[in-house]
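Consider the tokenized backbone below.
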């Protein structure tokens, strides 16, 4: 059995007012009061971070940003920097999510800059990688995913490598109800771990957590999370209520 502690992170995306996000955080805190094998994090919208942090006080649930700018400060209207995420209590931040890549045009180069910005301020990056449907159908899944991985981690210091989190999210499965089969997901996760071994070393690769994301829900979480190289989940829609999110956490341990 893997010694890697599972991580289940809820990406709330552009959902919930401050009041609604705070209520969900309090509900999760109450339901997850008992110690668990799995680590839990939530990523609300920027405007709710402070209130959610306050609601989670005294719990083990971590706070995450959904994105970050790669500069610490300056004339960057509408952006949020790593120091500001630290100031509000974030210990994680998602970078390179498919919606950022394909809707907002984030490039591999910019994703790498964001990774380093987080690293410089002690925030753990959750680096997302994943292929689109046409890339999968063309047999390019591993080329795309492993390419994004290598570019996203370019110049990442080996001494800090065990702290990074990778999330494999096939774009065609995000919010569509379609999910990669456990064996298909495991195949990609195994390839990711192999490439991590080439980028760093085998021991480091064996310590890095690789999450699966893409229509994860209570009905498929156990089968997905039982795979050897799947170390947790990055959950979208199912993380928006405690009733749908907690069963996924329970499936992870």
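A designed sequence for it:
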């Amino acid at each position: 059995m893997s010694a890697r502690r599972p991580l289940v992170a809820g990406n709330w995306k552009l959902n919930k007012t401050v009041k609604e996000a705070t209520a969900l955080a309090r509900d999760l805190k109450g339901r997850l009061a008992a110690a668990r094998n799995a680590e839990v994090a939530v990523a609300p919208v920027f405007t709710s971070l402070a209130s959610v942090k306050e609601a989670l006080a005294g719990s083990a649930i971590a706070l995450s940003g959904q994105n970050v700018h790669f500069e610490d400060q300056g004339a960057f209207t509408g952006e949020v920097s790593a120091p500001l995420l630290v100031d509000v209590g974030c210990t994680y931040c998602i970078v390179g999510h498919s919606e950022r890549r394909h809707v907002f045009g984030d490039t591999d180069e910019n994703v790498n800059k964001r990774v380093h910005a987080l690293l410089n301020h002690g925030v753990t990056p959750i680096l997302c990688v994943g292929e689109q449907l046409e890339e999968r159908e063309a047999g390019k899944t591993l080329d795309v995913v492993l390419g994004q991985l290598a570019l996203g981690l370019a110049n990442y210091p080996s001494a800090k490598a065990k702290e990074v989190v990778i999330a494999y999210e096939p774009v065609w499965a995000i919010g569509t109800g379609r999910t990669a089969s456990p064996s298909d997901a495991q195949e990609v996760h195994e390839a990711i771990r192999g490439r991590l071994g080439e980028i760093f070393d085998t021991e480091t690769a064996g310590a890095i957590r690789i999450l699966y994301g893409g229509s994860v829900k209570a009905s498929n979480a156990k089968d997905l999370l039982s795979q050897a190289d799947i170390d947790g989940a990055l959950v979208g829609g199912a993380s928006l209520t405690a009733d749908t999110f907690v069963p996924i956490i329970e499936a992870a341990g």
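The longest helix spans residues 182-199.
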